[in-house]
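The instructor's notes for this session suggest beginning with a concrete chain rather than abstract definitions. Hand out the sequence below and ask the class to guess, before any prediction is shown, which regions might be ordered.
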Amino acid sequence: MNLQQLQQQIKNNALANFYVVTGDEESLIQRAQHEFKQLIQPENRDMNYAQFDLTVEALDDVINEAMSMPFFGDRRVVVVQNPDFLTAKGKISPQDQDQFVKLLEKSVAENIVVIFINDLKIDKRKKITKALLKRAENIELPALSETQAKQMIMQELQQRAYKIDQDALQDLTLRTNAHYTAMKNELPKLIAYATHSKNITSEAVAALVPKTLTANVFDLVDAVMTHQPKKALMIYRDLLQNGEPALRVNAVLTGQFRLLLQIAGLKGTEQDMGKQLSSHPYRVKLARQMLKQYSLTSLRDSYLGMIGIEVKLKSTNQDPALLFERFILKNTA
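After discussion, reveal the predicted structure:
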């Protein structure tokens, strides 16, 4: 089930008693939370809407709430975040497990329990997980594709009577790695900037939208592989000046070289590769475009060079920034 199907269930008053929400698109997850919260009128939320974070609250509190009848209302909504008890390492007492299974089997007809699994790695072999997945409706909210993200951004702008130039939309996509939530989060300042013209330009995007670390690392890898030491050092030093730790830059860059090598050895669509590598299809698309320009031997050597830096960082006290600069100079010579 997707978000539109949930909205249709709400419209038809055909809601289930249990839902699990999976996915990693933050904006869509927030919209799902909003839809469930809106089921309870604002004046009744203190009594009939409850939200639990199981990193700090107990599962038996959730069970007690879900077993209680609505208080002067038609329904009660119970939202659960971070259900660690469904994971391989998460623990649950025998008593809580028995009570939770009883709740699933004999739920209060007026109550709706929504468990936001999001991108948590649950253990489907567990008895408690099997019981939940058997009874609950599953709402899947995966990351949007590049095309879907662009369409959603354009629709949101059109609703506000704004336009965005195609080159500006493409630059926004590049700077955010086609991550819909990141794109959406940049809209308020772009809209404010274009208040008078109602048109968002590439100049506005360049001035207001910073590149993500991953986007900068794409540029950094390209500068290393195309032998541009000045550009590589400039990007790297800018990252450090903007507060990125050298160790983190090193880790992301190593991961980018690894991704390129992995994609070089795979076949299939960007979506299929993205699933195999647990990476956004847009990253796969950019990586495939970059691979057309690079020597696989040089790419492998660069990856091994990054691994060498990692070994030195773990075994010596050498300055990570100095090691990184030596790597760039050596590989772009």
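Then share the key points. The two ends are 53 Å apart (CA to CA). The chain has a mean pLDDT of 92.
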